[in-house]
Amino acid sequence: MNDAPRTVVGLDIGTTKVCAIVGELSEGGVVDIVGVGQSPSEGLRKGVVVNLEATVRSIAKAVEEAELMSGVEVASVYVGIAGGHIKGINSRGVIAVGREDREIVESDVQRVIDAARAVSIPMDREVIHVLPQEFIVDDQDGIKDPVGMSGVRLEAEVHIVTGAITSAQNIVRAVNRAGFEVDDIVLAPFASSFAVLTEDEKELGVALIDFGGGTCDMALFVEGAIWQTEVLSLGGVNVTHDISVGLRTPIREAEQIKLKHGAAFSELVSADEEIEVPSVGGRRAKRLPRKILVEIIEPRMEEIFVLLAREIRKKGYENMIPGGVVLTGGASAMPGVQELAERVLELPVRIGAPKGISGLVDVVNSPSFSTGVGLVLYGAREGADERPTIGGGGDVFRSVMNRMKSWAKEVFGD
In angstroms, how far is CA 395 from the centroid of its own chain? Predict the structure, then answer.
């Protein structure tokens, strides 16, 4: 009998950085973080691969660093996916219970989920997740697990997440060329939810906003399940660009200024504070009031939150999330983000960092590691002996096309 702990690796391939996190699942079900690796991301734009070789190098460097820290040789990873190509829709499936005693069994649950995901999607898109929201047995709704119940009619409400086939393929191809297998592709905010949200928040109703470098990803949880996903192709990179233009400084220097002196709420900055701003073309650096920097950052951040608020209200969910908003992702760590978000969204807001783990907790105790840690927690859960919460969990092979073809065969026949 092998008593060695099971290793799970999360790979967060973002627009600004690639992060690899190695976790070990102990017998008690606790996830120990034993290795962390980071590398600047040079081949992605807004969550989509634009330079395959640069992405491969970034992945290899991040995983190698995590391997050195953990002493574990990485063979396969759970990969996060985001980007403006991600779309989410709600769907319903209905089946008749076939057993003579009318008892609902596991195969009935799988059949009704398959019926719910039999929706028409464009040929250039693939299903990434099928997330059950609730089951309905003979008009009795609000059921989370119908197995063992009696009924003649079983319905399922599900949230289907789709993405562009080529974008998913390029992520898988980059990971494969770096020398690793893909255990599964996971929507980034869904992965983050495992690391930052409590079960109480999910049940009460909460919006998780993963504020990254290239995109801002939102997932709305109602009664413990995802009911809406949205992706804005705006993020911390846009703020950096605004700083570069507004202060006439190189992009690299603008990013450092944002990290060191940035704030999203002008009331937090006093009028007498000054910062040093490098110039372009070898010109002498200049000193400017920090207030000017904040006056550049705040409007862009406010615009992003206004767009998110519009998406929440457009679908009528503003009264269904009394748990408020949980902000995570690297861009959410900026001072003043919480205050600005509360003012614009008109909801309670907190900043979410990874929890529910042990080991190198102090190393990953930052919103920028939420997706990576969430991928590890997701992988640990999927490896346990329980029914997956997504259709075909862990069903990614070397080619995403294989998964697409198998799904098409199940839904539409040969």
Answer: 18
**Helix/strand/coil for 211:** strand
- DSSP three-state, residue 325: strand
The number of distinct structural domains making up the chain is: 1
Identity of residue 409: K
Instruction: Determine, yes or no, domain membership for 123.
Output: yes
Check if the beta carbon of residue 10 is closer than 8 Å to that of residue 374. Answer: yes
Q: 133 is in which domain, residue-wise?
A: 87-162
Residue 184 falls within a domain, yes or no? no
Segment (H or E) for 355: none
For 245-250, the CB contacts below 8 A with 24+ separation are: 246/292, 246/296, 247/277, 247/288, 247/292, 247/293, 247/296, 248/279, 248/280, 249/277, 249/278, 249/279, 249/280, 250/278, 250/280
pLDDT digits (tens, 9 = 90+) for 368-408: 999 999 999 999 988 654 444 443 333 433 334 444 444 44
39: its two tokens: 């590398």
Helix, strand counts (H, E) of the chain: 11, 19
Which pLDDT score, from 0 to 100, does residue 403 have? 42
Q: What is the reported pLDDT for 109?
A: 93
The C-alpha atoms of residue 46 and residue 145 are separated, in whole angstroms, by: 37
Q: Are 332 and 173 in contact (CB under 8 A)?
A: no
Residue 130, in any domain of the structure: yes
pLDDT in tens, 174-220: 999 999 999 999 999 999 999 999 999 999 999 999 998 888 999 99
Burial class (CB in 10 A: 0-12, 13-18, 19+), 348: middle
Q: Which two tokens stand for residue 105?
A: 């069994």
Q: Report yes or no: 274 and 289 within 8 Å, Cβ to Cβ.
A: yes
* H or E segment to which residue 271 belongs: none
Considering the domain boundaries, does residue 154 fall inside one?
A: yes
Compute φ and ψ for 367, nearest 5 degrees. Answer: -55, -25
Is residue 339 exposed (0-12), middle (13-18) or buried (19+ Cβ within 10 Å)? Answer: middle
Alpha helices in 250-399 (DSSP H): 251-261, 290-314, 337-345, 370-383
User: What residues does 89 pair with on adjacent strands?
Assistant: 160
CA quadruple 284, 289, 292, 294: dihedral sign: positive
Q: Count CB atoms within 10 A of the CB of residue 303.
A: 14
Which residue in the block uniquely carries the two structure tokens 């391997």?
67
Query: Domain holding 136: CATH number?
Result: 3.30.1490.110
Burial group, residue 395, by CB count within 10 angstroms (0-12, 13-18, 19+): middle
Question: Residue 24: beta bridge partners?
Answer: 7, 32
